[in-house]
Design brief:
With 375 residues, this protein is an all-alpha fold. It has one domain. The chain has 20 helices and no strands. Helix 11 packs antiparallel against helix 17. The longest helix is centred in the C-terminal third of the chain and has 38 residues. The radius of gyration is 20 Å and the shape is globular.
Length: 375
């Protein structure tokens, strides 16, 4: 990609990030309703400003790197505005670096995808400064770039950082191991596993030793929590039979593992990026918790690989936003049943869109694989 084009994309990316910062920041001054400009970042100010260290003195509902980012923003910002600005600067920097990595990973003939499926995508505009997912997306893309350059040990390092940020990048470890196994690089598999475990250990071990219960709070919380209302499991429990947490945990895990096995069988000549895309879709389809910013995980795959049709993409994006706003309105505007109905319809359509994206990708994969071989 020419240098001028790279600068152009990065400047547009900075503008989108600034717009996200500005939008969510309006709620601090009550310029827009809280349920419209809501962000998890602002909701964590009180916890960030509490004395003590995360995991040791106070529980945090996220893995260690995210918890440390929250703590650092609180220490730097001190006030609510300062905390938000510090958080926004760190997340904005992460979003900028992510955009830079995505520009490097995007094939020459697919540069226009950066406009549609990243910079001007509703999820990037709304969710880059909303939760801390962009940090995990950054480490995931860094791992994919390392894989592309055949630097698998470095990829394992970045995946461990992603795992210590938001957990979900651990699923990308499977395509990396399968790639090495397929190429009979068995010795390197041991090195990759070792780098991942050592990196994850260095990050987590100090907190494990200092306060195991505080460190494991995130994992216990996710094991014991029920599905949220804007997940498919929540809709199943609402419309049909209320499932127990244990039933959902076991069923969702079996569905994901079965889906992953079928996917690897179907994508016989898979690339690490293609299989990672499929696994991400399976995770979003079957996971018991679905937060709206999770669509952000998919956007880089839409840019780099063959994206879904625009109608399907914007249906997915808009129903995702509708699910968020209807649920926030339900909680903050008197819990009217009509908002719950709207949320249910939006979640069902979003679920069908994710299934459609997966089916279309599997159908298109043979052509994508053949195209990749000729390049």
């Amino acid at each position: 990609m020419p240098r001028a084009s790279k600068i152009h994309f990065l400047l547009l990316g900075c503008s989108a990030i600034a717009a996200s910062i500005f939008f969510h920041g309006l709620t601090i001054y009550d310029l827009i309703p809280w349920h419209i400009g809501y962000s998890d970042i602002l909701g964590f100010f009180e916890k960030a400003s509490l004395p003590g260290l995360p995991y040791i003195d106070k529980p945090i509902e996220y893995p260690v790197i995210t918890g440390l980012v929250i703590q650092l923003a609180g220490a730097l910002g001190k006030t609510k505005i300062g905390y938000y600005l510090a958080s926004s600067l760190m997340l904005g920097l992460a979003a900028f670096i992510t955009t830079l990595l995505l520009v490097k990973l995007t094939p020459k003939n697919q540069e226009k995808n950066l406009y549609i499926y990243w910079i001007f995508a509703p999820s990037f505009l709304f969710f880059s400064i909303y939760n801390w997912d962009i940090i995990a997306v950054l480490f995931s893309l860094a791992a994919f770039l390392a894989m592309k350059k055949d630097k698998d040990l470095l990829a394992a390092f970045f995946l461990a950082l992603g795992f210590a940020s938001k957990f979900y990048p651990v699923i990308y470890f499977l395509p990396l191991i399968l790639k090495l196994w397929k190429n009979h690089r068995f010795k390197k598999i041991g090195g990759v596993i070792g780098i991942f475990l050592v990196t994850a250990g260095v990050i987590n071990l100090p907190f494990i030793l200092a306060n195991f219960d505080g460190w494991s709070f995130f994992y216990h919380l996710n094991q014991l929590r029920g599905p949220n209302l804007d997940s498919m499991w929540g809709i199943v429990s609402l419309l049909f039979r209320k499932l127990t947490v244990s039933e959902i945990n076991i069923t969702s895990l079996v569905c994901f593992i079965t889906g992953a096995w079928l996917l690897t069988k179907r994508l016989k000549d898979f690339g690490t990026l293609e299989l990672s895309f499929g696994l991400t879709l399976l995770f979003l389809i079957f996971n018991k918790v679905f937060s709206p910013q999770y669509i952000l995980w998919l956007l880089p795959f839409f840019v780099i690989l063959n994206p879904p049709p625009k109608f399907l993409f914007y249906t997915l994006e808009l129903t995702n936003i509708a699910a968020l706003f209807s649920l926030l309105a339900f909680f903050f505007q008197g819990q009217l049943v009509s908002y719950l109905y709207m949320n249910t319809i939006a979640v069902l359509i979003r679920f069908l869109c994710l299934l459609a994206v997966l089916m279309l990708f599997i159908k298109k994969y043979p052509r994508l694989a053949a195209k990749k071989k000729t390049q």
